[in-house]
């Protein structure tokens, strides 16, 4: 994995985490938090998309499909974290 790929993952994570924060809680989580939530959400979204048979779910590169996949995964991740915090 090259430096360019790592930078794309970080940028994708920051954008997806920020968007998920705006959609789910109405605020972001800071730069580092957005990156972590977005990257984890990207993996979760790609896995869920594959399991559900969504053809457009992708986690590679910086495209609209990968951003949407990461945002959906990040929102699901935030929902799960919210459920665990309630217990």
What does this 3D model show about the protein?
With 87 residues, this protein is mainly alpha-helical. The chain has one domain. Helices cover 78% and strands 0% of the residues. It contains three helices and no strands. It has helices at residues 3-24, 30-52, 64-86. It is globular, with a radius of gyration of 12 Å. 39% of the residues are buried. The mean pLDDT is 83.
Number of domains: 1
The global form is globular
Major sheet size, sense and barrel closure: none
From the alpha carbons, calculate the radius of gyration and give it in angstroms: 12 Å
SSE-based structural type = mainly alpha
Mean of residue pLDDT values: 83
Helix coverage percent of residues? Answer: over 70%
Strand content: under 5%
> DSSP helix count?
3
Tell me the span between the first and last alpha carbons.
Answer: 39 Å
**Which regions contain 5 or more consecutive residues with pLDDT less than 50?**
none
A few lines on this structure:
The chain has 3 helices and no strands. Helix content is 78%, strand content 0%.
Give the helices and strands, then pairings:
Layout lengths: L2 H22 L5 H23 L11 H23 L1
Notable features of this structure?
mainly alpha; 87 residues; globular; single chain
